[in-house]
Please model this.
Amino acid sequence: MADFTMSILGLKKKQPKTFKVKVSTMDAEMEFSCEVKWKGKDLFDLVCRTIGLRETWFFGLRYTVKDTYAWLKPDKQVLDQEVPKDSPITFNFLAKFFPEKVEDELVQEITQHLFFLQVKKQILDEEIFCSPEASVLLASYAVQAKYGDYDPNFHKPGFLAQDELLPKRVLMQYQMTSDMWEEKITAWYAEHRSITRDEAEMEYLKIAQDLEMYGVSYFSITQNKRDTELLLGVDAQGLHIYSPNNKLSPNKSFPWSGIRNISYSEKEFTIKPLDKKKEVFKFYSSQLRVNKLILQLCIGNHDLFMRRRKVDSIEVQQMKAQAKEEKARKKVERQILAREKQMREEAERAKEEMERRLFLLQDEARMANEALLRSEETADLLAEKAQIAEEEAKLLAHKAAEAEHDRQRLEVTALKTKEEKRLMEQKMREAESLAVKLVEQSERRLKEADHLKQDLNEAKDAERRAKQKLLEITKPTYPVMFPPPPTGPESPDMTVDMGGSIRMDFKDSDMKRLSMEIERERLEYMEKSKHLQDQLKELKSEIESLKLEEQQQAGLYSLRTGQSEHTSLFRPMSFVKIDAFQKGGA
Model:
């Protein structure tokens, strides 16, 4: 029973042999299972091996403690330091020291990339002050490093909408929209063509290292005696003293080459210049943890400062040679890729040109086929039209023959009509002359009738006078001597009665005979007039029939136009003559 109890107590006292760690770099997160006895250097080397980093002297593992931060000490066990007690323990793998000249000191691409990401974040978080112009230029290099060469067909407006490229202070300083900022950045970005990612990141760091706050770690301090609040800046060049409201221009600087010794005792720091004539500078920091951090940074930056001024170690020389060879190899690869890209682009352009030409040829072939179909349709239509035209030509030839036959017939008819018209005109002239003669004869007869009537009236007057004289003569008893009887057809018969009375007997036979002759002549004249009117009516009907026939013939053929005009000129004269003749006959 006692042995069992002791075994249980032994299990309770047994501690785990590992602990979990979470390390965050600028572009990745890693988790490790570490042994309890591991020192800070063991964990740091594991992280460096994992990410392939050889320039380890710039970096460290930083953790948060209370209201400040601290760097993991390499020569002390991890769990013995003031690391968080969380599981997993969180560390940030960051640059602890910054180079004086990035182009000369940063050898590996991974080192350069980590510096680029960290400096970019510090600029965007406004831990490093950057002017608007420099911010836009740095943003263009960041875009080149991320997206490669600018391609207007691929990088459409708005492609930077999700990227954080400028500090908020710069965005708030100007009343510009995100599209306007993007336009400015893109204008610079388009000029960085053919720059690789590591070259763009190096250009970014070369511009950033000239900024006043680049690589400076600031700490609040107070000066001796007057307790004046100041800022201490520690960087690769040395120590700098700033006013609290001005981190850009130091009031006093102590370069590493001019510092003989730095020491601190609890809260007091002492900077002893190399020149013994210069005054020793003392300042105070209230937090012991911050004092240790300041001392670590001063020692580390001073060591790197001295290291830069010595001949590179074998390791660094090998790294630089390898980096040089790697750069040369990558340059050759880039050239090969550039040539291949150029050849591929030329092939693509040739392909596009061939596709365009093929499309044009297909389009031309389609158009040619359509034109051929249209031509065939047109040929069919033309053949049909030609057939129709041939039929129409035949029909027209037939009609022309008929028209020629009709024309000849009309010419014959016209000749007959002209002959008939001539005969009609002759008959009309004869009728007119006959009518004129009849009119003259009738006038003459009328005049003779008037003379006869006048003679008759005179004879009647003579008879009446004779009878009156006879009555006057018969009244007395003496004999009367009569003159000899007149001779002639108009003298009255006179007889003498044997009883001594004289009797005169005027006969009416002459008067009757005269009246009968006049009546007979009138009847003859009426018969002649009626006969002449009948002839005129027949002539008029013949003329009307000829007129109707001419109108029908003129409507069908235009050959009769001149003859119709001649006929139309002839017709009114004929009708005038007929009307005059009818009036004369009446």
Residues 1-13, 477-507, 559-586 have pLDDT under 50 and may be disordered. The first helix runs from residue 2 to 13. The chain has twelve helices and 14 strands.
